Amino acid sequence: MEIQEAFHNILNPNFRDPQLTVWSCLIVGKLKLNMDGSSKEDPGQSGYKELLRDELGTWRTNHYHAKGLTNIDIESDSQTAMELILDGAEMNSPYRALIEDANFLLGRCQCSITSIPRETNSCADDLANLGVNQQELTIFLDDPPNSICPLLITDMRNISSSRD
User: Fold this and answer.
1) Within-domain flag for 10
2) Residue 21 host element (H or E)
3) For the chain, which terminus, N or C, has the lower number of CB atoms within 10 Å?
């Protein structure tokens, strides 16, 4: 077995053991907001979507948006955006005011923000891809689109996905 693995590593020098990732559930009573953006062509249509779920991974409807919630765990696979928010913008950045506002709101609402692997953000990624072609600026869905139902079930059942 060791010899076979050694030959495999020699023949495939970029091979790494895949890591398993899974969407993580929350503490009871908390909510998690997963978000992602999508862009088609450069320049082209772009947009973002977010998904609010409870500790079981259950899709939450738009009535939560109106409640002024606090203490939400926010996750995104956009490492660049997360670094900008967490580290702050440079003095001459055109996004400085926006980033400062985001940090102010995060602190005021006692929300945490975290960068996560793309594989654990598949529901938000799929929603963002669907939203690129929508004409409306904002849409609240009471039920998830059929295309992400299998992804939600995978998250709710804590099924891992491979990350190369």
Assistant:
1) no
2) strand 19-21
3) N
